[in-house]
Automatic annotation (TrEMBL):
GO terms for molecular function: SNARE binding. Belongs to the SNAPIN family. Keywords: Coiled coil. This is Biogenesis of lysosome-related organelles complex 1 subunit 7. It comes from Papilio xuthus. The keyword Coiled coil applies. Residues 134-146 have a biased composition (Polar residues). It comes from the Eukaryota. GO terms for cellular component: BLOC-1 complex; BORC complex; synaptic vesicle. The keyword Coiled coil applies.
């Protein structure tokens, strides 16, 4: 083999393989059709959960501030420290859940972008390629190599 000859195959040589499998195309379209509504629904639910988590965090913060004010206003200083510690612990847990939800939503958005990016490929795969011109393929009508 000559050193100047390339051993790699071009994309043009392999594009014929993409149209040969209508089952794969049908499966790809079916999977995209199945996954997109589920991802959209999951994304909506994650968004709603994140909003409710933020609202809960704000309510816990305001309740924490009110408890601190009540404790300061009382002369006999009731023992509110355990409750304040519980609120701080709850606030920490809400923050952790919020971070997990945000990471999940980021992953879902990445999946959505990948699905949207693959849609044009599925359309290209389903369209037939033009027939190669005779004499340029390197194989004669009888199957022998020119």
């Amino acid at each position: 083999m000559d050193d100047t000859e390339s051993t790699t195959t071009s994309a043009d040589e392999n594009t014929g393989n993409l149209c040969d499998n209508p089952t794969r195309d049908t499966l790809a379209e079916g999977l995209l059709g199945l996954l997109k509504p589920t991802v959209d629904q999951l994304d909506d639910r994650v968004r709603a959960t994140r909003i409710s988590q933020l609202e809960l965090k704000q309510q816990i913060d305001s309740l924490n501030e009110e408890l601190l004010k009540v404790r300061e206003s009382l002369n006999n200083h009731p023992d509110l420290d355990p409750y304040v510690k519980k609120l701080i612990t709850c606030k920490h847990k809400v923050t952790v859940v919020l971070n997990i939800l945000q990471a999940s939503q980021d992953r879902l958005n990445q999946i959505r972008r990948m699905v949207e990016k693959d849609k044009p490929k599925v359309k290209v795969i389903s369209e037939p390629l033009p027939e190669p011109e005779q004499g340029t393929s390197g194989i004669s009508d009888k199957g022998s190599i020119n």
